Amino acid sequence: MPAFSDIAAKLAEQAIELPSWAFGNSGTRFKVFGTPGTPRTPQEKIADAAQVNRYTALSPTVAIHYPWDKVDGWAALGAFANDHGVALGTVNSNTFQDDDYKFGSLTHSDPRIRQKAIDHHFECIDVMDATGSRDLKIWLADGTNYPGQGDIRARQDRLADSLAKIYARIGETQRLVLEYKFFEPAFYHTDIPDWGTSYTQVAALGERALVCLDTGHHAPGTNIEFIVMQLLRLGKLGSFDFNSRFYADDDLIVGAADPFQLFRILFEVVRGGGYGADSGVAFMLDQCHNVEDKIPGQIRSVLNVQEMTARALLVDLDALRVAQDSGDVLGANGILMDAFYTDVRQDLARWRESRGLAADPMAAYAASGYQQKIAADRVGGVQAGWGA
Ligand code: PSV
Ligand code: MN
Q1: Does any ligand 1 atom lie closer than 6 A to the CB of residue 241?
Q2: Is the beta carbon of 214 within 6 A of some atom in ligand 1?
Q3: 111 FRET partner, CA 20 to 30 A, in 24, 90, 265, 325?
Q4: 54 lines ligand 1 (CB under 6 A)
Q5: pLDDT tens for each residue of 79-100
Q6: Ligand nearest to the CA of residue 242, numbered in listed order
Q7: Cα(326) to centroid of ligand 1, in Å?
Q8: Is 181 in the pocket of ligand 1 (CB under 6 A)?
Q9: Is the beta carbon of 142 within 6 A of some atom in ligand 1?
Q10: Is any atom of ligand 1 closer than 6 Å to the C-beta of 69?
Q11: What pLDDT digit, counting tens, does each position of 341-371 carry?
Q12: Residue 286 CA, ligand 2 centroid: distance in Å
């Protein structure tokens, strides 16, 4: 197995984008609990995200959600982010909180509503032009609740047509990433339920249209690493929304529910050429912190991704290939498991210190007093988001 020193340089290439909405209030359909210190403005969300990067050096960009993070001056928001040591990243569209979209957005049978949803994406592209963002991420809540409610084929055709209009508007250096999710809020059918549908739609658009894989958006038991392998093989894996789940789209801290699954996914990313500064695969988090403090929740997630990336990088690929090709079932499995069971926490602590970071980012953040300060300063924060 490679030594930790062999992979240290590769670890420095890791960048994990944070979602602005993870810092706002969120909850379930039963209750949204307020959290002391909740941001009151997009600027305060960005300031909180910058704390994560300050203690980990892992999260240099922040994804914004439009119109949740709408401001008067995008250049000023970008400059604000830069002053805090981060940059604005992916722009996420939102066609799921407007009454017009009750029966769909880009798939709607009414051309007026379809055009309204397309125009919303044009606005998002204007934001990207102003912020210098590369990726437009589209997740649609479109679907139906009852068999017969909608013409599922016509909806797919309308989706293709709407996406083509949006794709035609994105710039040369921009990308469209299309996220899938197997259910919720629709319960009978969803218009982009799986990677195959997302792939089919983006393949028809062109090179700069790619798939976004949210780890929480699959049926229980799905082999997600197989999907990762296939999309990398097809050159169509654009980005990840990392989170974890026990039951449905729980949006919990990454690696909390199944660290071994996270390792398996990251192993396929590494082996498939999806890791590293030039890979074209964007790592992002997509989480909602319902009961825990949000900043340490995000710190824990990026550290979990880093820890499992390190273990994935430690797999002895040459030995694995020999074992696989010679039919050594238990040997091959043992090589993979050796890397998974390697405790890299002390090595990572020393690696951080060598870069001027605290050995334990969770403890350093807790000792900084930032949490107490925002709790005292920001009374009544309810920034736009799931909980607003
Ligand atoms: C949908 O569940 C989703 O995962 C999409 O990524 C959205 O952009 C995100 O949640 C927040 O709305
Ligand atoms: Mn997502």
Answers
A1: yes
A2: yes
A3: 90
A4: no
A5: 999 999 999 999 999 999 999 9
A6: 2
A7: 43
A8: yes
A9: no
A10: no
A11: 999 999 999 999 999 999 999 999 999 999 9
A12: 5
CA angle 64, 43, 20 (to 5 degrees): 30
SS (H, E, C) the chain: CCCHHHHHHHHCCCCEEEEHHHHCCCCCCCCCCCCCCCCCCHHHHHHHHHHHHHHHCCCCEEEEECCCCCCCCHHHHHHHHHHCCCEEEEEECCCCCCHHHCCCCCCCCCHHHHHHHHHHHHHHHHHHHHHCCCEEEECCCCEECCCCCCCHHHHHHHHHHHHHHHHCCCCCCCEEEEECCCCCCCCCEECCCCHHHHHHHHHHHCCCEEEEEECCCCCCCCCHHHHHHHHHHCCCEEEEEECECCCCCCCECCCCCCHHHHHHHHHHHHHCCCCCCCCCCEEEECCCCCCCCHHHHHHHHHHHHHHHHHHHHCCCHHHHHHHHHCCCHHHHHHHHHHHHCCCCHHHHHHHHHHCCCCCCHHHHHHHHCHHHHHHHHCCCCCCCCCCC
Domains of the chain and any CATH numbers: 12-377 (3.20.20.150)
215-255 pLDDT, tens digit each: 999 999 999 999 999 999 999 999 999 999 999 999 999 99
Q: Which token pair is 40?
A: 């009151």
Judged by its nearest atom, the ligand closest to the C-alpha of residue 190 is: 1
Nearest to 140 by CA among 99, 198, 89, 88: 198
CA 285 to ligand 2 center in whole angstroms: 8
Side chain identity, residue 30: F
- Assess contact for 7 and 313: CB atoms under 8 A: yes
Q: Indicate which residue's Cα is closest to atom 7 of ligand 1.
A: 139
Q: Considering every ligand atom, which ligand is closest to the CA of 241?
A: 2
Mean pLDDT across 66-89: 97
Instruction: Tell me, using a 6 A CB cutoff, whether residue 93 lines ligand 1.
Output: no
Distance 16 CA to ligand 1 centre (A): 16
Distance CA 243, CA 107 (A): 27
